[in-house]
Amino acid sequence: MTNKRIEILDSFRAIAILMVICFHFFSRWSNLYPYEKSYDFFRYGKFGVHFFFMISGFVIFFTLERTSTFKRFWINRYIRLLPSMFFASILTYLFFNAFDTSFLFPTSHYFNNVLVSLTFIQPDLISSLTRYRFELDYISGSYWSLWVEIQFYFLAAIVYYISPKRFYACFFLITVTLVGANFLLSHYYSSSLLIVKLKSLRSIFNLISALPFFCLGALFYIFYKNNINEIRNSLMLQICFVFFVGFLCFNNSQDLKLICLIFFFILLFFIMIYNEQSIIFLNNKFLNTIGVSSYFLYLIHENIGVFLINKNILALKSLFFFQPLIIIVFLIVISILFTTYIEGNIIKFLKNLLKKVSIK
């Protein structure tokens, strides 16, 4: 992949994280803001997470084709994910135990929730395995999407390493089947124990609802690769693309704004692949830097940021709109410093350590 396209993907990440932050700081927790619903303009910002899913679909397909074994793939994924998760979870835990005397976010006070967050597994799944002797939750609300990501990594990696030569055909056959079956299950009403159990499992193994976004990102990677190699996209790929776009449109037919937002995401990918010069303005240092640090920023922003807004930490008596903006800048700076000077060095150390022990 060219450096320009990598940088544009980083800018896509920046757009996604800024959407999510604006949703959390202006819309999601309106009952906790001093300004309440005065600036509630960002309700659709929550779908920045789904933009992240599309980016992940693109990146994971790219990564799989450049990783030799299933074991190496997962080691690389955890090297990428774990350092930020560890520091963000500890930071959130220490912050709330030091400052949150009113228990605004109770789940951020318990060390058990730090440990659960480090597994990347949905807390309710772990609680159910202990027959709910332990009530567990994420240390911060935003962490829910990491479990969705992990499920996608597992599905894609299993299919790829079982049959790399038939990967595309097998993967999209499985995903189209899963999405279709989930749609039918959602619209089938029965008191059958099997049906009830299957529906309850969806709340824990919740990849399927996000799967069309991951699959669109994966298809865009294939379109990108075919375009570079001057290969025409197969009929199968075109049908899959139409299926996932059509499914999202049909499934959200009552929400025209969301459909327009989905098409905006799709348009950005098409332009990046076939006419990157027209969005070259996105390839700038400001957005690239935010994009590179977006993972840590995503992990720390919600509970900490909303707490600071709730406490009116800047003691603003008017122009409340500036308080979340200043907090956003502060969290971005913290994330950039962490990503540049701490996470980067940890990842280099772990990779060098792996070379020494010759893990293949």
Describe this entry's structure for a reader.
The two termini are 23 Å apart. The protein has one domain. The longest helix has 36 residues, at 322-357. The chain is built from 14 helices and no strands. Helix 2 packs across helix 9 (207-228). The protein is mainly alpha-helical. It is globular and about 60 Å long. The mean pLDDT is 93. The chain has helices at residues 3-28, 48-64, 70-99, 111-119, 123-129, 144-162, 167-186, 193-201, 207-228, 235-251, 256-274, 285-292, 294-310, 322-357.
Task: Describe the SSE topology.
Elements: H1 3-28, H2 48-64, H3 70-99, H4 111-119, H5 123-129, H6 144-162, H7 167-186, H8 193-201, H9 207-228, H10 235-251, H11 256-274, H12 285-292, H13 294-310, H14 322-357
Helix pairs in contact: 1-2, 1-12, 1-13, 2-6, 2-9, 3-4, 3-13, 3-14, 6-7, 6-9, 7-9, 9-10, 9-11, 13-14
Sum this structure up briefly.
This protein has helices at residues 3-28, 48-64, 70-99, 111-119, 123-129, 144-162, 167-186, 193-201, 207-228, 235-251, 256-274, 285-292, 294-310, 322-357. By secondary structure, it is mostly helical. The chain is globular.
